[in-house]
Design brief:
heterodimer, A: mainly alpha, 2 domains, 0% strand, B: 301 residues, alpha/beta, Rossmann fold, 8 helices, 31% helix, globular
Chain lengths: 307, 301
Protein backbone atom coordinates (compact mmCIF):
# COMPACT_ATOMS: atom_id res chain seq x y z
CA UNK A 1 0.00 0.00 0.00
CA UNK A 2 2.91 2.30 -0.52
CA UNK A 3 4.69 2.69 -3.82
CA UNK A 4 2.24 0.70 -5.93
CA UNK A 5 -0.79 2.63 -4.71
CA UNK A 6 1.01 5.86 -5.38
CA UNK A 7 1.95 4.80 -8.86
CA UNK A 8 -1.52 3.61 -9.78
CA UNK A 9 -3.37 6.92 -10.11
CA UNK A 10 -0.54 8.21 -12.26
CA UNK A 11 -0.73 5.35 -14.68
CA UNK A 12 -4.40 4.41 -14.59
CA UNK A 13 -6.01 7.36 -16.40
CA UNK A 14 -3.46 7.15 -19.15
CA UNK A 15 -3.91 3.46 -19.83
CA UNK A 16 -7.68 3.85 -19.59
CA UNK A 17 -7.62 6.59 -22.24
CA UNK A 18 -5.55 4.36 -24.48
CA UNK A 19 -7.83 1.36 -24.08
CA UNK A 20 -9.12 0.37 -27.54
CA UNK A 21 -12.74 0.28 -26.39
CA UNK A 22 -12.44 3.74 -24.90
CA UNK A 23 -10.64 5.06 -27.96
CA UNK A 24 -13.36 3.69 -30.15
CA UNK A 25 -16.51 4.60 -28.26
CA UNK A 26 -15.58 7.60 -26.12
CA UNK A 27 -16.15 10.16 -28.93
CA UNK A 28 -19.56 8.69 -29.76
CA UNK A 29 -20.67 8.50 -26.11
CA UNK A 30 -19.50 12.04 -25.48
CA UNK A 31 -21.50 13.33 -28.43
CA UNK A 32 -24.62 11.46 -27.35
CA UNK A 33 -24.33 12.77 -23.79
CA UNK A 34 -23.84 16.33 -25.02
CA UNK A 35 -26.91 16.01 -27.25
CA UNK A 36 -28.95 14.64 -24.36
CA UNK A 37 -28.00 17.57 -22.15
CA UNK A 38 -28.93 20.06 -24.89
CA UNK A 39 -32.16 18.18 -25.53
CA UNK A 40 -33.20 18.20 -21.86
CA UNK A 41 -32.46 21.92 -21.56
CA UNK A 42 -34.44 22.56 -24.73
CA UNK A 43 -37.32 20.41 -23.47
CA UNK A 44 -37.51 22.38 -20.24
CA UNK A 45 -37.34 25.69 -22.08
CA UNK A 46 -39.91 24.82 -24.71
CA UNK A 47 -42.41 23.14 -22.45
CA UNK A 48 -42.10 25.64 -19.59
CA UNK A 49 -44.91 28.01 -20.62
CA UNK A 50 -47.16 25.13 -21.58
CA UNK A 51 -46.90 23.51 -18.16
CA UNK A 52 -47.11 26.81 -16.23
CA UNK A 53 -50.23 27.84 -18.18
CA UNK A 54 -51.72 24.48 -17.30
CA UNK A 55 -51.21 25.08 -13.59
CA UNK A 56 -52.60 28.60 -13.86
CA UNK A 57 -55.67 27.48 -15.77
CA UNK A 58 -56.48 25.00 -13.06
CA UNK A 59 -55.68 27.66 -10.44
CA UNK A 60 -53.59 25.28 -8.40
CA UNK A 61 -50.62 26.64 -6.50
CA UNK A 62 -47.31 25.51 -7.99
CA UNK A 63 -43.60 25.80 -7.35
CA UNK A 64 -40.71 26.00 -9.77
CA UNK A 65 -39.89 22.34 -9.18
CA UNK A 66 -43.51 21.40 -9.98
CA UNK A 67 -43.20 23.11 -13.36
CA UNK A 68 -39.79 21.54 -13.87
CA UNK A 69 -41.05 18.03 -13.30
CA UNK A 70 -44.11 18.88 -15.40
CA UNK A 71 -41.92 19.69 -18.40
CA UNK A 72 -40.42 16.20 -18.17
CA UNK A 73 -43.73 14.34 -18.11
CA UNK A 74 -46.24 16.41 -20.06
CA UNK A 75 -48.76 14.40 -22.02
CA UNK A 76 -48.51 16.49 -25.18
CA UNK A 77 -45.27 18.43 -24.85
CA UNK A 78 -43.95 20.70 -27.58
CA UNK A 79 -40.67 18.82 -27.30
CA UNK A 80 -40.79 15.51 -25.47
CA UNK A 81 -37.85 14.64 -23.25
CA UNK A 82 -35.64 11.78 -24.49
CA UNK A 83 -36.77 9.39 -21.77
CA UNK A 84 -40.42 9.92 -22.77
CA UNK A 85 -39.62 9.08 -26.39
CA UNK A 86 -37.60 6.04 -25.39
CA UNK A 87 -40.32 4.71 -23.10
CA UNK A 88 -43.05 5.23 -25.73
CA UNK A 89 -40.83 3.65 -28.36
CA UNK A 90 -40.04 0.63 -26.20
CA UNK A 91 -43.68 0.40 -25.18
CA UNK A 92 -45.03 0.45 -28.73
CA UNK A 93 -42.36 -1.96 -29.98
CA UNK A 94 -42.53 -4.53 -27.20
CA UNK A 95 -45.84 -3.70 -25.50
CA UNK A 96 -48.10 -5.17 -28.19
CA UNK A 97 -48.07 -8.28 -30.33
CA UNK A 98 -45.97 -7.48 -33.44
CA UNK A 99 -48.95 -7.41 -35.79
CA UNK A 100 -51.29 -5.34 -33.62
CA UNK A 101 -52.23 -1.99 -35.21
CA UNK A 102 -50.77 -0.13 -32.22
CA UNK A 103 -47.40 -1.85 -32.55
CA UNK A 104 -44.58 0.10 -34.15
CA UNK A 105 -43.19 -3.20 -35.41
CA UNK A 106 -46.31 -3.65 -37.51
CA UNK A 107 -46.08 -0.15 -38.98
CA UNK A 108 -42.37 -0.56 -39.60
CA UNK A 109 -42.98 -3.82 -41.46
CA UNK A 110 -45.60 -2.16 -43.67
CA UNK A 111 -43.18 0.63 -44.58
CA UNK A 112 -40.27 -1.80 -44.88
CA UNK A 113 -42.06 -3.95 -47.45
CA UNK A 114 -42.79 -0.91 -49.63
CA UNK A 115 -39.20 0.25 -49.15
CA UNK A 116 -37.65 -3.04 -50.17
CA UNK A 117 -39.84 -3.53 -53.23
CA UNK A 118 -39.22 0.09 -54.26
CA UNK A 119 -35.49 -0.33 -53.66
CA UNK A 120 -35.33 -3.48 -55.76
CA UNK A 121 -37.30 -1.86 -58.58
CA UNK A 122 -35.18 1.29 -58.39
CA UNK A 123 -31.91 -0.64 -58.34
CA UNK A 124 -32.82 -2.71 -61.39
CA UNK A 125 -34.26 0.26 -63.28
CA UNK A 126 -31.35 2.52 -62.32
CA UNK A 127 -28.78 -0.05 -63.42
CA UNK A 128 -30.56 -0.67 -66.72
CA UNK A 129 -30.65 3.06 -67.41
CA UNK A 130 -26.93 3.29 -66.64
CA UNK A 131 -26.21 0.41 -69.03
CA UNK A 132 -28.16 2.10 -71.80
CA UNK A 133 -26.43 5.42 -71.19
CA UNK A 134 -22.97 3.83 -71.17
CA UNK A 135 -23.56 1.92 -74.39
CA UNK A 136 -25.13 4.64 -76.49
CA UNK A 137 -24.19 8.28 -76.94
CA UNK A 138 -27.64 8.96 -78.37
CA UNK A 139 -29.37 7.55 -75.31
CA UNK A 140 -27.02 9.46 -73.05
CA UNK A 141 -27.99 12.72 -74.71
CA UNK A 142 -31.69 11.92 -74.85
CA UNK A 143 -32.14 10.32 -71.43
CA UNK A 144 -29.82 12.14 -69.08
CA UNK A 145 -31.63 15.53 -69.09
CA UNK A 146 -34.93 13.80 -68.27
CA UNK A 147 -33.37 11.77 -65.53
CA UNK A 148 -32.01 14.94 -63.95
CA UNK A 149 -35.34 16.74 -64.46
CA UNK A 150 -37.16 13.91 -62.72
CA UNK A 151 -35.29 14.70 -59.54
CA UNK A 152 -35.98 18.44 -59.59
CA UNK A 153 -39.70 18.07 -58.92
CA UNK A 154 -40.30 17.67 -55.18
CA UNK A 155 -41.62 14.21 -54.40
CA UNK A 156 -44.15 15.65 -51.91
CA UNK A 157 -45.82 17.34 -54.89
CA UNK A 158 -45.58 14.31 -57.16
CA UNK A 159 -46.67 11.64 -54.71
CA UNK A 160 -50.39 12.57 -54.60
CA UNK A 161 -50.52 12.67 -58.42
CA UNK A 162 -48.92 9.23 -58.58
CA UNK A 163 -51.37 7.84 -56.05
CA UNK A 164 -54.42 9.33 -57.77
CA UNK A 165 -53.39 8.23 -61.26
CA UNK A 166 -52.40 4.74 -60.16
CA UNK A 167 -55.55 4.48 -58.04
CA UNK A 168 -57.64 5.36 -61.11
CA UNK A 169 -56.22 2.37 -62.97
CA UNK A 170 -56.86 0.16 -60.01
CA UNK A 171 -53.44 0.07 -58.39
CA UNK A 172 -53.64 0.71 -54.67
CA UNK A 173 -51.81 -0.29 -51.53
CA UNK A 174 -48.24 -1.49 -51.68
CA UNK A 175 -47.46 -0.93 -55.35
CA UNK A 176 -47.97 2.86 -55.62
CA UNK A 177 -45.87 3.33 -52.51
CA UNK A 178 -43.13 1.14 -53.94
CA UNK A 179 -43.22 3.00 -57.23
CA UNK A 180 -42.76 6.36 -55.51
CA UNK A 181 -39.92 4.89 -53.52
CA UNK A 182 -38.36 3.47 -56.71
CA UNK A 183 -38.81 6.81 -58.46
CA UNK A 184 -36.71 8.47 -55.77
CA UNK A 185 -33.99 5.86 -55.41
CA UNK A 186 -33.14 4.97 -59.02
CA UNK A 187 -31.35 8.29 -59.51
CA UNK A 188 -28.27 7.79 -57.32
CA UNK A 189 -27.93 4.28 -58.72
CA UNK A 190 -28.00 5.48 -62.33
CA UNK A 191 -25.46 8.22 -61.66
CA UNK A 192 -23.21 5.90 -59.65
CA UNK A 193 -23.39 3.05 -62.13
CA UNK A 194 -22.70 5.26 -65.17
CA UNK A 195 -19.55 6.30 -63.35
CA UNK A 196 -18.84 2.70 -62.38
CA UNK A 197 -19.37 1.19 -65.83
CA UNK A 198 -17.01 3.78 -67.35
CA UNK A 199 -14.39 3.33 -64.63
CA UNK A 200 -12.26 0.52 -66.18
CA UNK A 201 -8.70 1.45 -67.01
CA UNK A 202 -8.13 2.17 -70.75
CA UNK A 203 -5.43 -0.52 -70.70
CA UNK A 204 -7.91 -3.10 -69.43
CA UNK A 205 -10.36 -2.13 -72.16
CA UNK A 206 -7.62 -2.40 -74.79
CA UNK A 207 -6.58 -5.79 -73.45
CA UNK A 208 -10.15 -6.98 -73.94
CA UNK A 209 -9.91 -5.61 -77.47
CA UNK A 210 -6.68 -7.52 -78.17
CA UNK A 211 -8.47 -10.71 -77.11
CA UNK A 212 -11.34 -9.67 -79.40
CA UNK A 213 -13.84 -9.97 -76.57
CA UNK A 214 -17.51 -9.40 -77.39
CA UNK A 215 -19.28 -6.35 -75.87
CA UNK A 216 -21.14 -8.75 -73.60
CA UNK A 217 -17.88 -10.25 -72.32
CA UNK A 218 -16.49 -6.77 -71.74
CA UNK A 219 -19.61 -5.97 -69.72
CA UNK A 220 -19.61 -9.07 -67.53
CA UNK A 221 -15.89 -9.59 -67.10
CA UNK A 222 -14.72 -5.99 -66.89
CA UNK A 223 -17.38 -3.30 -66.56
CA UNK A 224 -19.51 -5.03 -63.92
CA UNK A 225 -16.70 -5.94 -61.55
CA UNK A 226 -15.19 -2.46 -61.95
CA UNK A 227 -18.54 -0.90 -61.06
CA UNK A 228 -19.02 -2.84 -57.82
CA UNK A 229 -17.52 -0.21 -55.48
CA UNK A 230 -19.72 2.42 -57.12
CA UNK A 231 -22.70 0.11 -56.89
CA UNK A 232 -22.44 -0.20 -53.12
CA UNK A 233 -21.88 3.51 -52.58
CA UNK A 234 -25.06 4.15 -54.62
CA UNK A 235 -27.03 1.41 -52.89
CA UNK A 236 -26.32 2.91 -49.49
CA UNK A 237 -27.65 6.28 -50.59
CA UNK A 238 -30.54 4.68 -52.46
CA UNK A 239 -31.81 2.51 -49.63
CA UNK A 240 -32.25 5.42 -47.22
CA UNK A 241 -33.87 7.47 -49.96
CA UNK A 242 -36.26 4.66 -50.77
CA UNK A 243 -37.28 4.51 -47.10
CA UNK A 244 -37.97 8.24 -47.19
CA UNK A 245 -39.92 7.69 -50.43
CA UNK A 246 -42.08 5.01 -48.82
CA UNK A 247 -42.80 7.23 -45.80
CA UNK A 248 -43.64 10.25 -47.97
CA UNK A 249 -45.89 8.06 -50.11
CA UNK A 250 -47.89 7.15 -47.00
CA UNK A 251 -48.65 10.76 -46.15
CA UNK A 252 -51.01 11.84 -48.98
CA UNK A 253 -52.78 8.50 -49.18
CA UNK A 254 -54.05 8.71 -45.64
CA UNK A 255 -52.75 5.20 -45.25
CA UNK A 256 -53.91 3.39 -42.14
CA UNK A 257 -50.62 1.66 -41.61
CA UNK A 258 -46.94 2.48 -41.95
CA UNK A 259 -44.49 4.84 -40.31
CA UNK A 260 -45.83 7.67 -42.49
CA UNK A 261 -49.36 6.98 -41.24
CA UNK A 262 -48.09 7.06 -37.65
CA UNK A 263 -46.39 10.41 -38.28
CA UNK A 264 -49.55 11.80 -39.84
CA UNK A 265 -51.78 10.57 -37.00
CA UNK A 266 -49.32 11.90 -34.44
CA UNK A 267 -49.37 15.36 -35.95
CA UNK A 268 -53.19 15.41 -36.35
CA UNK A 269 -53.82 14.64 -32.71
CA UNK A 270 -50.85 16.49 -31.28
CA UNK A 271 -49.35 13.22 -30.08
CA UNK A 272 -45.82 14.55 -30.18
CA UNK A 273 -44.36 11.65 -28.26
CA UNK A 274 -45.86 9.14 -30.68
CA UNK A 275 -44.57 11.23 -33.55
CA UNK A 276 -41.04 11.16 -32.19
CA UNK A 277 -41.24 7.46 -31.47
CA UNK A 278 -42.20 6.89 -35.14
CA UNK A 279 -39.21 9.00 -36.17
CA UNK A 280 -36.96 6.87 -34.00
CA UNK A 281 -38.42 3.78 -35.66
CA UNK A 282 -37.61 5.26 -39.10
CA UNK A 283 -34.05 6.03 -37.98
CA UNK A 284 -33.56 2.53 -36.58
CA UNK A 285 -34.95 1.04 -39.77
CA UNK A 286 -32.72 3.05 -42.07
CA UNK A 287 -29.56 2.39 -40.04
CA UNK A 288 -30.45 -1.30 -40.08
CA UNK A 289 -30.84 -1.24 -43.85
CA UNK A 290 -27.54 0.57 -44.37
CA UNK A 291 -25.95 -1.90 -42.00
CA UNK A 292 -27.18 -4.82 -44.08
CA UNK A 293 -25.92 -3.23 -47.32
CA UNK A 294 -22.53 -2.60 -45.67
CA UNK A 295 -22.33 -6.20 -44.50
CA UNK A 296 -23.03 -7.48 -48.00
CA UNK A 297 -20.48 -5.01 -49.34
CA UNK A 298 -17.85 -6.30 -46.95
CA UNK A 299 -18.55 -9.88 -47.99
CA UNK A 300 -18.36 -9.04 -51.68
CA UNK A 301 -15.18 -6.98 -51.20
CA UNK A 302 -13.36 -9.76 -49.44
CA UNK A 303 -14.30 -12.17 -52.23
CA UNK A 304 -12.98 -9.63 -54.74
CA UNK A 305 -9.60 -9.46 -53.05
CA UNK A 306 -9.92 -6.09 -51.31
CA UNK A 307 -7.19 -5.40 -48.78
CA UNK B 1 13.88 -20.23 -64.30
CA UNK B 2 12.04 -23.34 -65.19
CA UNK B 3 11.56 -23.56 -68.90
CA UNK B 4 9.16 -26.26 -69.81
CA UNK B 5 8.86 -27.90 -73.15
CA UNK B 6 5.75 -27.09 -75.10
CA UNK B 7 2.83 -29.34 -74.21
CA UNK B 8 1.96 -31.87 -76.84
CA UNK B 9 -1.60 -30.54 -77.08
CA UNK B 10 -0.49 -27.21 -78.44
CA UNK B 11 -1.35 -26.68 -82.07
CA UNK B 12 1.70 -25.56 -83.94
CA UNK B 13 0.82 -24.50 -87.46
CA UNK B 14 4.32 -23.05 -87.77
CA UNK B 15 5.82 -26.50 -87.61
CA UNK B 16 5.69 -27.04 -91.32
CA UNK B 17 8.01 -24.09 -91.84
CA UNK B 18 11.64 -24.63 -91.07
CA UNK B 19 12.19 -23.65 -87.47
CA UNK B 20 14.23 -20.51 -87.27
CA UNK B 21 15.85 -21.66 -84.09
CA UNK B 22 17.37 -24.77 -85.56
CA UNK B 23 20.74 -23.12 -86.01
CA UNK B 24 22.36 -23.72 -82.70
CA UNK B 25 25.14 -21.29 -82.02
CA UNK B 26 28.08 -22.23 -79.89
CA UNK B 27 28.42 -20.11 -76.78
CA UNK B 28 31.78 -18.76 -77.84
CA UNK B 29 30.80 -17.82 -81.35
CA UNK B 30 30.69 -14.12 -82.10
CA UNK B 31 28.07 -12.46 -84.23
CA UNK B 32 30.57 -11.76 -86.97
CA UNK B 33 31.65 -15.36 -87.08
CA UNK B 34 28.24 -16.95 -86.68
CA UNK B 35 27.81 -19.93 -88.96
CA UNK B 36 26.09 -19.15 -92.23
CA UNK B 37 22.40 -19.47 -91.47
CA UNK B 38 21.17 -19.99 -94.98
CA UNK B 39 17.75 -21.50 -94.63
CA UNK B 40 16.67 -23.74 -97.45
CA UNK B 41 13.06 -22.64 -96.94
CA UNK B 42 12.42 -18.87 -96.73
CA UNK B 43 11.06 -17.79 -93.40
CA UNK B 44 7.42 -16.85 -93.21
CA UNK B 45 6.79 -13.15 -92.73
CA UNK B 46 4.75 -12.47 -89.62
CA UNK B 47 4.64 -8.73 -90.12
CA UNK B 48 4.84 -7.11 -93.53
CA UNK B 49 4.37 -3.36 -93.39
CA UNK B 50 4.72 -1.32 -96.57
CA UNK B 51 4.87 2.45 -96.52
CA UNK B 52 2.76 2.90 -93.40
CA UNK B 53 1.86 6.49 -92.49
CA UNK B 54 -0.31 7.69 -89.66
CA UNK B 55 -1.19 11.31 -89.12
CA UNK B 56 -3.64 12.77 -86.73
CA UNK B 57 -5.04 16.21 -86.12
CA UNK B 58 -4.51 17.73 -82.71
CA UNK B 59 -5.27 21.15 -81.31
CA UNK B 60 -1.68 22.13 -82.18
CA UNK B 61 -1.98 20.98 -85.78
CA UNK B 62 -1.08 17.89 -87.74
CA UNK B 63 1.13 15.27 -86.14
CA UNK B 64 2.97 12.72 -88.27
CA UNK B 65 3.14 9.83 -85.86
CA UNK B 66 4.43 7.52 -88.58
CA UNK B 67 5.81 8.53 -91.93
CA UNK B 68 6.38 5.96 -94.71
CA UNK B 69 7.46 3.14 -92.44
CA UNK B 70 8.26 -0.18 -94.06
CA UNK B 71 9.22 -3.19 -92.02
CA UNK B 72 9.35 -6.92 -92.34
CA UNK B 73 9.51 -9.33 -89.45
CA UNK B 74 10.09 -13.01 -90.03
CA UNK B 75 8.76 -15.75 -87.86
CA UNK B 76 10.71 -16.31 -84.67
CA UNK B 77 12.52 -13.00 -84.73
CA UNK B 78 12.96 -10.77 -81.71
CA UNK B 79 12.59 -7.21 -82.98
CA UNK B 80 13.18 -4.20 -80.77
CA UNK B 81 11.93 -0.71 -81.55
CA UNK B 82 14.06 1.98 -80.01
CA UNK B 83 13.93 5.75 -80.15
CA UNK B 84 13.04 8.82 -78.12
CA UNK B 85 9.50 9.67 -77.04
CA UNK B 86 7.26 10.59 -79.92
CA UNK B 87 9.19 8.61 -82.53
CA UNK B 88 6.19 6.42 -83.21
CA UNK B 89 7.54 3.13 -81.84
CA UNK B 90 4.51 2.55 -79.62
CA UNK B 91 2.22 3.74 -82.42
CA UNK B 92 3.83 1.22 -84.78
CA UNK B 93 3.16 -1.56 -82.30
CA UNK B 94 -0.43 -0.40 -81.82
CA UNK B 95 -0.96 -0.28 -85.57
CA UNK B 96 0.29 -3.86 -85.88
CA UNK B 97 -2.06 -4.79 -83.01
CA UNK B 98 -4.97 -3.02 -84.77
CA UNK B 99 -5.47 -0.79 -81.74
CA UNK B 100 -4.90 2.13 -84.13
CA UNK B 101 -5.44 2.30 -87.86
CA UNK B 102 -2.85 3.70 -90.30
CA UNK B 103 -3.82 6.59 -92.57
CA UNK B 104 -2.12 4.96 -95.54
CA UNK B 105 0.07 2.04 -96.50
CA UNK B 106 -0.47 -1.68 -96.51
CA UNK B 107 -0.01 -3.98 -93.57
CA UNK B 108 -0.27 -7.71 -93.26
CA UNK B 109 0.00 -9.45 -89.92
CA UNK B 110 0.38 -13.19 -89.75
CA UNK B 111 -0.67 -13.39 -93.38
CA UNK B 112 -3.88 -11.40 -93.02
CA UNK B 113 -5.10 -7.87 -92.37
CA UNK B 114 -4.28 -6.41 -88.95
CA UNK B 115 -7.96 -6.48 -87.99
CA UNK B 116 -8.37 -10.11 -88.88
CA UNK B 117 -5.15 -10.90 -87.05
CA UNK B 118 -6.59 -9.27 -83.94
CA UNK B 119 -9.93 -11.02 -84.34
CA UNK B 120 -8.04 -14.25 -84.90
CA UNK B 121 -6.10 -13.68 -81.67
CA UNK B 122 -2.73 -13.74 -83.40
CA UNK B 123 -0.86 -11.84 -80.73
CA UNK B 124 -0.56 -11.31 -77.01
CA UNK B 125 -0.04 -7.72 -75.91
CA UNK B 126 1.95 -6.65 -72.86
CA UNK B 127 1.64 -3.03 -71.75
CA UNK B 128 4.04 -1.01 -69.65
CA UNK B 129 1.69 -1.50 -66.68
CA UNK B 130 0.71 -5.07 -65.82
CA UNK B 131 -3.00 -4.11 -66.08
CA UNK B 132 -4.05 -7.13 -64.06
CA UNK B 133 -7.68 -7.25 -62.96
CA UNK B 134 -7.47 -6.50 -59.23
CA UNK B 135 -10.58 -8.49 -58.30
CA UNK B 136 -9.23 -11.68 -59.85
CA UNK B 137 -6.61 -13.95 -58.35
CA UNK B 138 -3.45 -14.59 -60.35
CA UNK B 139 -4.94 -17.85 -61.58
CA UNK B 140 -8.18 -16.14 -62.61
CA UNK B 141 -6.25 -13.36 -64.31
CA UNK B 142 -4.47 -15.93 -66.44
CA UNK B 143 -7.77 -17.60 -67.19
CA UNK B 144 -9.44 -14.39 -68.35
CA UNK B 145 -8.35 -14.51 -72.03
CA UNK B 146 -8.94 -18.26 -72.01
CA UNK B 147 -12.49 -17.79 -70.71
CA UNK B 148 -13.11 -15.18 -73.38
CA UNK B 149 -11.79 -17.48 -76.08
CA UNK B 150 -13.88 -20.37 -74.84
CA UNK B 151 -11.23 -22.85 -73.71
CA UNK B 152 -12.51 -25.79 -71.70
CA UNK B 153 -12.19 -25.75 -67.93
CA UNK B 154 -9.59 -28.50 -67.94
CA UNK B 155 -7.56 -26.84 -70.70
CA UNK B 156 -7.65 -23.55 -68.79
CA UNK B 157 -6.32 -25.20 -65.65
CA UNK B 158 -3.58 -26.96 -67.55
CA UNK B 159 -2.48 -23.77 -69.28
CA UNK B 160 -2.50 -21.78 -66.05
CA UNK B 161 -0.15 -24.31 -64.48
CA UNK B 162 2.09 -24.42 -67.54
CA UNK B 163 2.44 -20.69 -68.07
CA UNK B 164 2.78 -19.83 -64.38
CA UNK B 165 5.68 -22.23 -64.14
CA UNK B 166 7.11 -20.73 -67.32
CA UNK B 167 7.36 -17.32 -65.63
CA UNK B 168 8.43 -18.98 -62.40
CA UNK B 169 5.34 -18.08 -60.37
CA UNK B 170 4.03 -21.51 -59.41
CA UNK B 171 2.45 -21.30 -55.97
CA UNK B 172 0.99 -17.83 -56.47
CA UNK B 173 -2.28 -19.03 -58.06
CA UNK B 174 -4.51 -17.92 -55.21
CA UNK B 175 -2.83 -14.57 -54.54
CA UNK B 176 -4.40 -11.31 -55.58
CA UNK B 177 -2.35 -8.91 -57.75
CA UNK B 178 -1.71 -6.43 -54.91
CA UNK B 179 0.08 -9.17 -53.00
CA UNK B 180 2.75 -9.40 -55.72
CA UNK B 181 5.67 -7.07 -56.48
CA UNK B 182 5.71 -4.98 -59.66
CA UNK B 183 8.12 -7.36 -61.40
CA UNK B 184 6.04 -10.40 -60.49
CA UNK B 185 2.88 -8.69 -61.72
CA UNK B 186 4.57 -7.96 -65.03
CA UNK B 187 5.58 -11.62 -65.29
CA UNK B 188 1.94 -12.57 -64.75
CA UNK B 189 0.94 -10.24 -67.55
CA UNK B 190 3.52 -11.86 -69.84
CA UNK B 191 2.20 -15.30 -68.93
CA UNK B 192 -1.31 -14.02 -69.62
CA UNK B 193 -0.25 -12.77 -73.06
CA UNK B 194 1.27 -16.16 -73.85
CA UNK B 195 -1.51 -18.26 -72.32
CA UNK B 196 -3.57 -18.62 -75.49
CA UNK B 197 -0.49 -19.44 -77.55
CA UNK B 198 -0.55 -16.53 -80.01
CA UNK B 199 1.86 -16.38 -82.92
CA UNK B 200 3.35 -13.10 -81.72
CA UNK B 201 4.14 -11.34 -78.49
CA UNK B 202 3.84 -7.54 -78.67
CA UNK B 203 5.50 -5.79 -75.75
CA UNK B 204 5.26 -2.06 -75.16
CA UNK B 205 8.05 -1.07 -72.76
CA UNK B 206 7.12 -3.95 -70.49
CA UNK B 207 9.96 -3.31 -68.06
CA UNK B 208 9.96 0.49 -68.27
CA UNK B 209 8.42 0.96 -64.85
CA UNK B 210 10.75 -1.46 -63.06
CA UNK B 211 14.09 -0.82 -61.43
CA UNK B 212 17.38 -1.78 -63.09
CA UNK B 213 17.99 -4.92 -61.04
CA UNK B 214 14.55 -6.41 -61.64
CA UNK B 215 14.81 -5.36 -65.26
CA UNK B 216 18.10 -7.22 -65.82
CA UNK B 217 16.61 -10.29 -64.25
CA UNK B 218 13.45 -10.11 -66.36
CA UNK B 219 15.50 -9.53 -69.52
CA UNK B 220 17.29 -12.80 -68.93
CA UNK B 221 14.01 -14.54 -68.24
CA UNK B 222 12.40 -13.09 -71.34
CA UNK B 223 15.31 -14.32 -73.44
CA UNK B 224 14.86 -17.82 -72.02
CA UNK B 225 11.15 -17.61 -72.67
CA UNK B 226 11.71 -16.55 -76.25
CA UNK B 227 14.18 -19.38 -76.74
CA UNK B 228 11.80 -21.98 -75.36
CA UNK B 229 8.57 -20.76 -76.98
CA UNK B 230 10.08 -19.66 -80.31
CA UNK B 231 7.55 -16.84 -80.49
CA UNK B 232 8.00 -13.81 -82.67
CA UNK B 233 8.51 -10.91 -80.29
CA UNK B 234 8.06 -7.21 -81.06
CA UNK B 235 9.49 -5.20 -78.24
CA UNK B 236 9.37 -1.43 -77.67
CA UNK B 237 12.05 0.00 -75.41
CA UNK B 238 13.90 3.13 -74.37
CA UNK B 239 17.00 1.28 -73.35
CA UNK B 240 19.89 0.65 -75.73
CA UNK B 241 21.46 -2.21 -73.69
CA UNK B 242 18.08 -3.89 -73.36
CA UNK B 243 17.47 -3.68 -77.11
CA UNK B 244 20.93 -4.99 -78.02
CA UNK B 245 20.83 -7.74 -75.43
CA UNK B 246 17.44 -9.11 -76.42
CA UNK B 247 17.05 -8.62 -80.14
CA UNK B 248 17.82 -10.31 -83.40
CA UNK B 249 16.90 -7.06 -85.11
CA UNK B 250 16.90 -3.50 -83.79
CA UNK B 251 14.70 -0.89 -85.43
CA UNK B 252 16.01 2.60 -84.66
CA UNK B 253 13.33 5.26 -84.97
CA UNK B 254 13.28 9.03 -84.89
CA UNK B 255 10.57 11.61 -84.21
CA UNK B 256 8.92 14.41 -86.20
CA UNK B 257 7.96 12.71 -88.38
CA UNK B 258 8.09 9.24 -86.83
CA UNK B 259 10.28 7.16 -89.14
CA UNK B 260 12.81 4.33 -89.26
CA UNK B 261 16.44 5.51 -89.29
CA UNK B 262 18.24 2.19 -89.26
CA UNK B 263 17.56 -1.52 -88.95
CA UNK B 264 20.41 -3.37 -87.30
CA UNK B 265 20.84 -7.13 -87.32
CA UNK B 266 22.08 -8.47 -84.07
CA UNK B 267 22.80 -12.16 -83.85
CA UNK B 268 24.31 -13.02 -80.53
CA UNK B 269 24.26 -16.66 -79.47
CA UNK B 270 20.87 -17.72 -78.21
CA UNK B 271 22.09 -18.79 -74.81
CA UNK B 272 23.81 -15.48 -74.09
CA UNK B 273 23.99 -14.13 -70.58
CA UNK B 274 24.06 -10.58 -69.26
CA UNK B 275 27.87 -10.66 -69.29
CA UNK B 276 27.78 -10.30 -73.05
CA UNK B 277 27.08 -6.63 -72.47
CA UNK B 278 30.76 -6.08 -71.73
CA UNK B 279 32.03 -7.62 -74.98
CA UNK B 280 33.33 -5.39 -77.80
CA UNK B 281 30.76 -6.82 -80.24
CA UNK B 282 27.95 -5.78 -77.96
CA UNK B 283 29.39 -2.29 -77.53
CA UNK B 284 29.85 -1.98 -81.27
CA UNK B 285 26.18 -2.61 -81.93
CA UNK B 286 25.17 -0.33 -79.07
CA UNK B 287 27.39 2.33 -80.65
CA UNK B 288 25.65 1.86 -83.99
CA UNK B 289 22.25 2.27 -82.33
CA UNK B 290 23.48 5.45 -80.67
CA UNK B 291 24.81 6.75 -83.98
CA UNK B 292 21.46 6.03 -85.56
CA UNK B 293 19.65 7.89 -82.80
CA UNK B 294 22.00 10.85 -83.22
CA UNK B 295 21.50 10.88 -86.98
CA UNK B 296 17.78 11.12 -86.31
CA UNK B 297 18.43 14.17 -84.12
CA UNK B 298 17.23 12.27 -81.12
CA UNK B 299 19.70 14.00 -78.86
CA UNK B 300 18.98 17.52 -80.05
CA UNK B 301 16.75 18.64 -77.19
Amino acid sequence: MTSSSLALPLRAPRSLARHPLVERYAPVVTMVLALMVIWYIAAVAMNWNLVRDGFEREETPYTVSDVLSGTMSAERPLLPAPHQIVSTFVDSVFGYPPLAPRSLVYHSLVTLSATLIGFALGAVFGTLLALMIVHSRVLERSLLPWIICSQMVPIVALAPIFIVVLGAIGLTGLLPKSLISAYLCFFPITIGMVKGFTSPDPLQLELMQTWSATPRQVLWKLRWPSAVPYLFASLKVAITISLIGAIVAELPTGAEAGIGARLLAGSYYGQTIQLWAALVAAAVLSSGLIGIVSLIERGVNSRMGAH
Amino acid sequence: MSVLSEPATKPRPEDQVSPLMSVKLAHSSLPSQSPPSIDPVPKRLVVDAQDISLTFETADGRVDALSHVSLQVAEGEFVSFIGPSGCGKTTMLRVIADLQQPSSGSLSVNGMSAENARLGRSYGYVFQAPALFPWRTIEKNLKLPLEIMGFSEAEQQQRVEHYLSLVNLTGFERKFPWQLSGGMQQRVSIARALSFDPAMLLMDEPFGALDEIVRDHLNEQLLQLWKSTEKTVLFVTHSIPEAVFLSTKIVVMSPRPGRIIDIIDCNFPKDRSLEIRETPEFLKIAQRVRTGLRAGHSYDE
